[in-house]
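Q: Trace token order:
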Amino acid sequence: MWSLAQLARLPSARLTALDLPAVVGRARERAEGLGLADRVTLLPGDLHEASLEPRRFDRIILANVLHLEPAHAAEAILARLAPALRPGGRFVLVDAMATPTPEIDRSHHAYALFLALRVPRSRAHPESDLRAWLAAAGAPAARRIDLSGPPLGLSALVSEP
């Protein structure tokens, strides 16, 4: 879980994690194993239906989710989550992104193929679409971070306050 890795590096931080009920149990076990459980609140739920308090969070991390969704659902998830971000907070979107950059394009295409074989309906959305959806939700992505090299093609878009 990307959020637990950040929590481990930020001793004063707290984590609220929203995930499907089956996943929340595994997240609890991982947090306990890392000695972080006392700073973690787990919310079993569905991103399509969850209601989050507006302006509640300093950082929202959405990792490895949107490639599982068709475009309209991915855009709706971002629109649902972004209002929960406090002014000056950051939205971190980690996912496979289709990108026109030639030097990293192969790794992204390889990861998109891996996703398609593993989850038939998955799709690496174009980075331009992800940026547009974030901006429309009020969290414009200002910078991109490439998180891995071949064979993975994960990147993050980070909104800046």
About this structure: The radius of gyration is 16 Å.
